[in-house]
Amino acid sequence: MEEEDAAADPYLPYDGGGDTIPLQEIPRRGSNYAMSNGGGVASSTTHLLDFLEEPIPGVGTYDDFHTIDWVREKCKDRERHRKINSKKKESAWEFTKSLYDAWSGWLVVTLTGLASGALAGLIDIAADWMNDLKEGVCLSAMWFNHEQCCWTSNETTFAERDKCLQWKSWAELILGQAEGPGSYIMNYFMYIYWALSFAFLAVCLVKVFAPYACGSGIPEIKTILSGFIIRGYLGKWTLMIKTITLVLAVASGLSLGKEGPLVHVACCCGNIFSYLFPKYSKNEAKKREVLSAASAAGVSVAFGAPIGGVLFSLEEVSYYFPLKTLWRSFFAALVAAFVLRSINPFGNSRLVLFYVEYHTPWYLFELIPFILLGVFGGLWGAFFIRANIAWCRRRKSTRFGKYPVLEVILVAAITAVVAFPNPYTRQNTSELIKELFTDCGPLESSQLCQYRSQMNGSKAFTDNPNRPAGPGVYSAMWQLCLALIFKIIMTIFTFGLKVPSGLFIPSMAIGAIAGRIVGIAVEQLAYYHHDWFLFKEWCEVGADCITPGLYAMVGAAACLGGVTRMTVSLVVIVFELTGGLEYIVPLMAAVMTSKWVGDAFGREGIYEAHIRLNGYPFLDAKEEFTHTTLAREVMRPRRSDPPLAVLTQDDLTVEELQGVINETSYNGFPVIVSKESQRLVGFALRRDITIAIENARRKQEGIMLNSRVYFTQHAPTLPADSPRPLKLRSILDMSPFTVTDHTPMEIVVDIFRKLGLRQCLVTHNGRLLGIITKKDILRHMAQMANQDPESIMFN
Fold this sequence. Notes:
By secondary structure, this protein is mainly α. 52% of the residues lie in helices and 5% in strands. Residues 635-701, 732-790 form the CBS domain.
């Protein structure tokens, strides 16, 4: 909001709030006159409170589950900035303080990036080790996972590189035999035992110590970044428990990923570090700039994609994203990725497990299967959102939701029992994606690469790229089809459990399985029918024409896009994962197709759907308001409602004011000149009034129940024997947003979205008629969409 020079404008509202400005008032005002802009922020020459030298502690803060006032916070920050700038030339100390203030933003995102990178590395290493613990243990060094255990071994052969004497399966340790039905059953039993142990420990830690550590965290972070306050959601307990339980949940083999929760972990780091700097700790709007940068760092370490992280923060989670935040997000993502690269958790000098590089080009005819994968991704996304939301709603409304530990144990048991027999579901989902992305080369020993050589019919891999599939490939295709069905069903029931659970990896796995199946099918089609007009032009005999791994990558992007409805950031994340700029066009085609197909069934992504399910007060900027209603149809009070609770500027006593507060549950009250005139003076928040009265009673003598309360500049004339009056002008927002009763609601909704308002007053010819709050708008939008408005409101 533009700041105006009060001295230059003689037509500012009269301090007393009357209908006219007395002419003799104009020359007297001078530079000390200030219009309080945004609640409790006066000019630097007037004190925040007239009866005290210092501001009232607590005024301007917010209760839990309330929305911040963006306009007030921005004004507060501008005032703080002006104060620092005006003092910096006074002394070297003040100049140092101004430098520290300017640098504190970069300092806090650096600390956030360092912490996010370190925690991500820790989580990756611990999850890998615990995942392998389900299958066996390294005798030479307990803390080595399977791969690290066999690095130093001399007995390993290339074909069986994961077998060495140091690594013992549980059957070898307990029964002393590596093969046979007895050892298979023992390994099966131990796999289920560890999976259930990890899941049980994770859900118990979440339930007892940090209930906010469950789920992905992205819907809540989106809501927090839009200005909602959820105390403790980004606290130190949540951070500690989420980090530990994320490792346990991933290791338990549940169909979930760690990428979404890493955004929550990074935001916890950002929130904790912001308390070290008063600039951020005392201003909720500024704190949200740090959280935007933290979410970019979270995606940067989750996928090893710093630029993708910045775009994810901009496209998916941030509500307010100024240019300064873009640079800081970029820097935070860079620092986090650098730290993770230094830790090198996977031992492959990459930031992620499934980094791949392809060297073959793609051909124009391949756009057809790529677009078909996009259609599959959109259909899967729409189906998943509906099925998962229906299940979560059922969990909320039935007795089943009262037993979260039992539910986690049940889902973990079913997952472990069904997953073990199939090698593609038994392994870690990240390893599965790596295997599906990887192109077949002479070094690959995977079943997916067991093609028949044309020379002798053996399974050996030859240099001839145009090759018929061997029995290994066909059995792998059956196993992948079963894995696809298993993953689809289990992901629906897993997302929303009371353990940390991300959705990126399961969605990518489903897409990668479907893509690899399609890729192998197209490859075999090109081999057996190379004389078709589609293949004849591009696929010469002996030329490597189809890359099945590329189809897996495109399918993964399409399915993730179908679920989250991300577009630009998703394409950038996937090409940063694969290092292949050449494949941007197939990725873009698949991701856009999946978005269009998904949007045909419903415009909400999974995160928006969960926000609506939880009833968070979130106005989605992507959602259009197309109805032709007016402000007077939405405002309260309605015709059947009691009249609007208002305060008069100088008629109330402390007792009457407390009576209004005790009898109502509103968060704020419009202040008017008098009941007769109904002319608006300003808006006072309930919390600020309560704190100011308590503070005045403590620090001011003579404040009684029958003391007069006034919101004007000068005290009203009172009888000589009346007690000392209480001046509350300093907590009055003298520039509340107002609209007329004929303002179209689409303009009102736009104002709420773009300015982040909490409430807006409705007037008619300058007289107060009613009020519209954020919840009134959400109720109205629900009614217009034929939904029960009370069922979607946050309780």
